[in-house]
Amino acid sequence: MxxxxxxxxxxxxxxxxxxxxxxxxxxxxxLCTAGISFLAAACLAALALWRGAGCGCRLLRLTxxxxxxxxxxxxGALFAGMxxxxxxxxxxxxxxxxxxxxHEKRYYGFYLIVLGVLYALCFAGNLxxxxxxxxxxxxxxxxxxxxxxxxxxVMAGLKYLFYxxxxxxxxxxxxxxxxxxxxxxxxxxxxxxxxxxAAHTGLLLFAAFLMILGFGVKAGMFPMHxxxxxxxxxxxxxxxxxxxxxxxxAGVLGLLRVVxxxxxxxxxxxxxxxxxxxxxxxxxxxxxxxxxxxEDGLKKRLAYSTxxxxxYCLFGLAVMNxxxxxxxxxxxxxxxFVKAALxxxxxxxxxxxxxxxxxxxxxxxxxMPVMMWCFTVASMGLIGLPPTGGFMSKWYxxxxxxxxxxxxxxxxxxxxxxxxxxLTAGYLLAPAVAGFFPGADYEHKGIKKREPPxxxxxxxxxxxxxxxxxxxxxxxxxxxxxEWIKGLVTF
Length: 491
Fold this sequence. Notes:
Blueprint: H1 2-20, H2 27-51, E1 56-61, E2 67-71, H3 74-97, H4 104-122, H5 127-145, H6 151-180, H7 201-218, H8 227-234, H9 237-247, H10 249-263, H11 265-268, H12 272-294, H13 298-319, H14 322-353, H15 364-367, H16 369-383, H17 389-402, H18 407-436, H19 454-472, H20 475-489
Antiparallel strand pairs: 1-2
């Protein structure tokens, strides 16, 4: 039990310490403190997952029926493990990147607080606990968006806050309704609706739809996606990496908890809520890919790509069968590693060359070959090409779509996924090809190697390698998930 508490409290306390402490006389001391905090937080999380699996504890009793509870299950462990890897890699990448930014101590302070809140979100044992930390995640991550305090950053941060709060109010309304017609708010396979809920199906379906929209805001689902391409490009590159790879997945986790653990798939399967959700997720997949294809800004292109790729996860959840859910969870892992690697690659390019647009990347593979090879392999993962984890996730998603009970979406789903994959190849492989093969008229003389330092390259290499390993040995994950996925979808 103690490790569950410590895995949350330690990074939050470390972050608060950095925020209130006076400035360090030497930058090395700040980096040493931050680095030790990152490693200690990761170790405590690993111990919590190892020793606390299946365990839980009560944090606080609010009323006779409302309590704040923590509990570690397979779903929370999967998200927490991915978050730990991405935060560690992006955190150590920050040591090289943030030397070019101001307010570095403040950045690491909020970075650690966000990590602690994320662990609390992953380990939430009931809906009220999840909602509390979901709100805290928004509030603690806003400073990462407006870090440089420029007008564009402040406006993007406010946009992120406004959209997130609107989504949270939708979720809050649904929470009120669910608490009235449920036996408990504790996450349970198959849902928690009470026997008299059948008499209020219309109201409960409306509440479920609002909660799907509300959590969909954080996941960047249309029509509440506009905050994402505004916030990601203005944040520091390592912050963009965790925003895109991890924080948007808080919305996916919220949807997963609400659909499979609160309402139950049996209640929503075949309803208008499922059909509208499927339509919105596919529309977002296609729209995000088209917008990314048309965008020339490197980080903004990756942000639009996140809009599309995260909705792959939502589509897998919405089909409500074993293949779709398996594909969604694999996509969460694969996209987390790949998108973090791509944003870190973008940060390395910006720091080493000052280039911020895709059209400026011609010949960049001659200057930064290792980084550009990682960019290419990570792009293959986002497209869904073997041997990356993206291929396996999209394979399961396509199979889940084909076996969808709704004939229209059984045909439309795989078709949209295929078109999106082709668009993804266009907007990611084109700069990779131009980077390595700039053409006969490119001036090759006087090219200087601008490979980033090891603190940048090593995290990118680790994330890229993980995306490939996930594609080579997906059974390590799928076999472990098979039993509880079957338990979730059979209700």
